[in-house]
Design a protein that fits this description.
The protein is of the alpha+beta class. It has a single domain, classed as Roll (T-fold), CATH 3.10.520. It has helices spanning 88-101, 103-111; strands spanning 6-8, 18-23, 34-40, 43-49, 54-57, 60-63, 78-85, 117-123, 129-133, 141-142. Strand 8 (117-123) and strand 9 form a beta hairpin. The longest helix is centred in the middle third of the chain and has 14 residues, at 88-101. The protein starts with 5 loop residues before the first strand and ends with a strand. The mean pLDDT is 84.
């Protein structure tokens, strides 16, 4: 997985708000396959996911994100978490932590902290991609669907 936190400051060369594409979290997806587009207006984003660096053992997916409580790879329906904060390091740390915390706990945590927003992409029971946004994401994300 390409994992590069980004901090945007000011406007792009065209005088517009910076835009970043959030990759489609499927192992076979190209880096140009975009699931969501987000606007960064003096904001940082970091994305963590388990869809590129993983393998299967006896039909079970083993990802590279380790749960510090168990010492084992985390298994979850979460495929990608993008966290938005003023500080890059904060966004990066929470993106990885939320992959371990899971969808519901992570949404509750973000909604209780005014300095964070997040975009969660997960697979439902049928294997279809679903997206959850925290309360303040309306001004950050440009819905593609």
């Amino acid at each position: 997985m390409l994992h590069t936190p980004v901090k945007a400051k000011g406007k792009n060369p065209d005088g517009k708000t910076w835009t970043i594409g959030i990759n489609t979290p499927k192992k076979e997806a190209k880096l140009t396959d975009i699931e969501e587009i987000v606007f960064l207006d003096d904001l940082s984003v970091a994305t963590s996911g388990n869809y590129r660096q993983s393998y299967e053992v006896d039909g079970q997916k083993i990802a590279h994100i380790i749960n510090p409580k168990t010492g084992f790879p985390e298994t979850s329906s979460l495929l990608s978490v993008s966290v938005f904060s003023k500080e890059c390091a904060v966004a990066d740390a929470y993106a990885t932590a939320f992959m371990v915390m899971g969808l519901e706990k992570s949404i509750a945590f973000v909604n209780a902290n005014d300095d964070l927003e997040a975009l969660f992409i997960y697979s439902d029971e049928e294997g279809d991609l679903k997206t959850e946004l925290t309360k303040g994401m309306g001004s950050i994300v440009a819905r593609l669907k």
